[in-house]
Amino acid sequence: GYPGVPGAASGSGVGTYLREITRGLASQGHECHVVVWSESDAARRLPGVVEPSSCIEGVHIHPLAHAYWPVIERWAPDSRDAHNLRSRVRALDRAHGYDWIELQSEEGIGLGVQNDFPGKVILRIHTTLSQMVAYKQVPPSWAVRRRLAREAGSFLKARRVVTHSRLHAEELQRLFPCLRRIDVVPHGIDVPSVSRGPAAGGSADESGKEPAFLIIGTTDRRKGADRIRQALEAYAARHGRCRAVIVSRCDDETKRAFNLMPPWPRAVKVDWRGEIAETALREEYAEASVLLHLARYESFGLPLIEAAAAGLPVVATRVGIAPDLLGGELERLLIDGDDAAAVADALALAVGKSEQFGTALRRRYEQSYTRRAMVDAYLTVIARYANPN
After folding, report:
1. From CA 381, how far away is CA 121, in angstroms rounded?
2. pTM for the predicted model, two decimal places
3. pLDDT tens readout for residues 92-114
4. DSSP H helical ranges for the chain
5. Are 246 and 272 in contact (CB under 8 A)?
6. Cα 360 to Cα 328: distance, rounded to the nearest angstrom
7. Is 53 helix (H, G, I), strand (E, B) or coil?
8. Is 269 helix (H, G, I), strand (E, B) or coil?
9. How many CB atoms lie within 10 A of CB 99?
10. How far apart are the C-alpha atoms of 38 and 40, rounded to whole Å?
């Protein structure tokens, strides 16, 4: 995905990273081309078509439609996509002569590109299929087993590997001992500053208003949805009234599955926001007292960085970027999501020291998680790849 490109898949995660890193590189005079999967109506009618390129803020975007070989796909999943991607990269390289080719590899679909350009390829690993299987996100099947084999082959060929957090690098090293060295370049995003009102921090006794805990993400067990009620009830029992604002698309059946339907204790108020626009989300960061992140698994954790940019304290489990972001003086905000009492006490601590923790997080965002910081770190890694000695 590449948000903002006509006909291209949009979203967060990889799409956000691509947008920020390429625009940041282009602003410093580098030439960047991005191949994205197309989701336009024309692509659905004519699979495999190469659509007209776009240029956004100096970045050249090349949409490529998904395509299938119906019989072969049973035995070699995504084979037509891999073939088309490889052909497209070859054609673009002939036209532009790239110095580096970065593959956003989740399932090894760029294996053929690595065969063609072994001296140019950087493998950027966000989330692996192996991790998704391990965390029971993907049920095992013949197609999944084939993809796992291809993923392992892709990683075996990888000479230069980049990921986005120290914790993710360590997990990749355990899963794939063949990865000799993994460089960490955290995602960076430029987030408009928000003005946090005086009622956003402080306890209910100080402001006369209960603290508001912001929860963002998909409603599933991997993201800790089943931990929400116990954390809020523990806070109410130990520290008094509170309000939770949950930004997540969720129907009543899913809420029942994770014990999130009313009734709630009188001291707990729950507001569901569903999916909201970016501007509305920034307002939630401005109004909240703490961002609560209860995930069991997280590849990165973009809301944590957005909260830090807003100067909003974060209470989070030890997943994704959280250990890097909440080190040192902020380590008390790292919690075991299954220990409801510890979560409640960490929330109370964050509410009581809202200004101190918010200022520290804003400082860390400015030092390490802006677009400029990401581009600088990326160019440092590139220079090391170009001169390994």
Report:
1. 13
2. 0.86
3. 999 999 999 999 876 677 888 99
4. 14-27, 41-45, 70-73, 79-96, 111-116, 129-134, 142-157, 166-175, 204-207, 228-239, 252-257, 278-287, 302-309, 322-325, 340-352, 354-368, 371-386
5. yes
6. 10
7. coil
8. strand
9. 10
10. 6
Q: Which residues contact 352 (CB under 8 A, 6 or more apart)?
A: 202, 203
Burial level of 40, CB count in 10 A (0-12/13-18/19+)?
A: middle
Closest C-alpha among 184, 188, 157 to residue 172: 184
Do 309 and 365 contact (CB within 8 A), yes or no? yes
pLDDT tens profile 192-249: 777 676 545 444 444 457 999 999 988 888 889 999 999 999 999 999 999 999 998 8
Phi, psi of 272 (to 5 degrees): -95, 130
Do 291 and 313 meet the contact criterion of CB atoms below 8 Å apart? Answer: yes
The span from the CA of 61 to the CA of 210, in Å, is 47
For residue 6, whether the previous peptide bond is cis, meaning omega lies within 30 degrees of 0, is: no
